[in-house]
Amino acid sequence: MIPENLRYSRDHEWLTEGSPATVGVTAFAADALGDVVFVELPEPGTLVKAGDPCGEIESTKSVSEVYAPADGEIIEVNVTLSDEPGLINTDPYGAGWLFRLRVTGDPDLLDAAGYTALVS
Amino acid sequence: MRRTALFDVHSHLGAAFTDFAGWSMPLRYGSDLAEHHTVRESAGLFDLSHMGRIRVSGDPAFLDWALVGRMSAVKVGRAKYTMLCHTTGGVLDDLVVYRLAEREFLVVANAANAAVVRAMLGEHANGYAVRIDEQPGALIAVQGPMALDVLGTGADLPYYGIRPDRLDGREVLLARTGYTGEDGFEIYCSAGDAPAIWEWAAARGARPCGLACRDTLRLEAGMPLYGHELSVRSTPFHAGLGRVVALDKPDFVGAAALRSVAAAGPETLLAGLVTEGRRAPRAGYRVLHEGTDVGVVTSGALSPTLGHPVAMAQVPATLAEPGTKLAVDIRGTRVDAEVVALPFYRRTR
């Protein structure tokens, strides 16, 4: 259920290994949100610090902030989400990715086992 | 947490549960948007067993006194939407009251207010020959244009009608009521029969739907939700529902306050708002007129049926006319809004 090859933030985001890293929200978080109907993402070129709010995910019932999972620079965002925000629900680890981040420094992240423990 | 007779059925279906007024209720089974569209296009199946059900037996004049409507004028086998108000005129709950017999009424209250409604009815019953009892059992709704096909009975039941019927051989009270803006039925049955009736309706094509889509459905239909559009701090007139108050009744709980609001006109009114874009105004967001804070959003969502945000808001009566240009502060961003007539969505079939 929780992919082994990814790293995770405590705010329920996943990142691929290395840099630049692809970032998305976990299936656990997507399920909790319900159907996503709107996503607002940072502009490419934005510099972020781990834990900074840098976007919003709206479902029919609620609004949640997107937090930067690591220090770095946003280099690309998933523009497909503006037309198909539901990809976050249907394919959270694939086509529902949020942005790519050029990671600076050594981020404090969980491995799959650590994240599994967090959500169970 | 309280559980309905259908809790195990919901668990088996993989429902996501939410705490609703102390009840563990299904929020959604899968996609809340798909559930919403199912109700607009075919038929959805809801567990509403958390709603308060109160049987009032005896003198019909009692409900004329306790509630704002004229319940004694409701025909046997028919229902009326009404409210229980405080002596201040503030709304304690909105209710559907069914007349089951000359001296027999079923009062259906919001889950969160059921205890208050029971207590207030008990208090107001002083001096009236009535009995007030909780009605046990379950409540299942089948809502949507295909609801009639699912049930296979009820075609001759008028809107806001109720009668004893049989579904899959089981005795029920079948009512043509709902909270979705679609044709549909509400089924009052025993707790023991509820799982079998649920499975039967599902097998006949009704899709299980949770409370998440129930909220977007009622919002599109412009229907108030207690705690959002209705509260003890405002009267039915403030919600644009003054028509439910029978001001010509001799006397009733809240009459003096309500007559005074009716005569002066409410200072604020519930208005429908539409906005551009996809970010929805949400409950609690401020409403602005020419830069000045004038009101508050009571409910809002991106309408799944219409594809744009819709909201209801309490605004000054002078700014509640359709066509009025307002704005909503959506988390620091001022978004243009226009007042429109309610409901946002009206069914065509």
Automatic annotation (TrEMBL), chain A:
Domain annotation Lipoyl-binding: ranges: 20-102
Keywords, comma-separated and alphabetical: Lipoyl
InterPro entries for this protein: 2-oxoA_DH_lipoyl-BS, Biotin_lipoyl, GCV_H, GCV_H/Fam206, GCV_H_sub, Single_hybrid_motif
Transmembrane is among the record's keywords: no
Pfam family, one: GCV_H
Positions carrying N6-lipoyllysine: K61
Domain of life: Bacteria
Requisite cofactors: (R)-lipoate
Cofactor note: Binds 1 lipoyl cofactor covalently.
Keyword Membrane carried by entry: no
Protein family membership: Belongs to the GcvH family.
Function summary: The glycine cleavage system catalyzes the degradation of glycine. The H protein shuttles the methylamine group of glycine from the P protein to the T protein.
Assembly and oligomerization: The glycine cleavage system is composed of four proteins: P, T, L and H.
Protein's recorded name: Glycine cleavage system H protein
Organism: Actinoplanes flavus
TrEMBL record, chain B:
Family, as annotated: Belongs to the GcvT family.
Molecular function in Gene Ontology: aminomethyltransferase activity
Domain Aminomethyltransferase C-terminal: 270-345
Protein name: aminomethyltransferase
SUPFAM superfamilies in the record: Aminomethyltransferase beta-barrel domain, Folate-binding domain
Catalytic activity of the protein: N(6)-[(R)-S(8)-aminomethyldihydrolipoyl]-L-lysyl-[protein] + (6S)-5,6,7,8-tetrahydrofolate = N(6)-[(R)-dihydrolipoyl]-L-lysyl-[protein] + (6R)-5,10-methylene-5,6,7,8-tetrahydrofolate + NH4(+)
NCBIfam families documented for this protein: gcvT (TIGR00528), PRK00389.1 (NF001567)
Entry's EC annotation: 2.1.2.10
Keywords per UniProt: Aminotransferase, Transferase
Broadest EC class assigned to this enzyme: transferase
Species per Swiss-Prot/TrEMBL record: Actinoplanes flavus
InterPro entries per UniProt: GcvT, GcvT/YgfZ/DmdA, GcvT/YgfZ_C, GcvT_C, GCVT_N, TrmE/GcvT-like
GCVT N-terminal domain sequence ranges: 6-249
Gene3D superfamilies linked to this entry: Aminomethyltransferase beta-barrel domains (2.40.30.110), Aminomethyltransferase fragment (4.10.1250.10), Probable tRNA modification gtpase trme, domain 1 (3.30.1360.120)
